[in-house]
């Protein structure tokens, strides 16, 4: 499975490693993803999501149901 956040759509970015001599080589900045289980009381079930830590902060702030509703409206979550 790809390393993409299921709620926000965050994915890897491309950049450069820069040495002291200013030589540049390509590198990849991966998203900070975690696999987390959430309980949804409205549907009375558990779901497992691969989310970024920024999305986890949003869930802690707004609640899982509000964040899932926004993600479904944007088309990121198809479950």
From TrEMBL:
UniProt keyword annotations, A-Z: Ribonucleoprotein, Ribosomal protein
Organism (species): Leeuwenhoekiella nanhaiensis
Lineage of origin: Bacteria, Pseudomonadati, Bacteroidota, Flavobacteriia, Flavobacteriales
GO terms assigned for molecular function: structural constituent of ribosome
Top-level taxon: Bacteria
GO terms classed as biological process: translation
Family: Belongs to the bacterial ribosomal protein bL28 family.
GO cellular component terms attached to this protein's record: ribonucleoprotein complex; ribosome
Pfam family, one: Ribosomal_L28
Name of this chain's protein: Large ribosomal subunit protein bL28
């Amino acid at each position: 499975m790809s390393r993409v956040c299921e709620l926000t759509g965050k994915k890897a970015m491309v950049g450069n490693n820069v040495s002291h001599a200013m030589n540049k080589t390509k590198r990849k900045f991966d998203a900070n993803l975690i696999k987390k289980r959430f309980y949804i009381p409205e549907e009375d079930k558990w779901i497992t999501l691969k989310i970024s830590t920024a999305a986890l902060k949003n869930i802690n702030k707004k609640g899982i149901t509000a964040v899932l509703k926004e993600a479904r409206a944007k088309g990121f979550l198809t479950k």
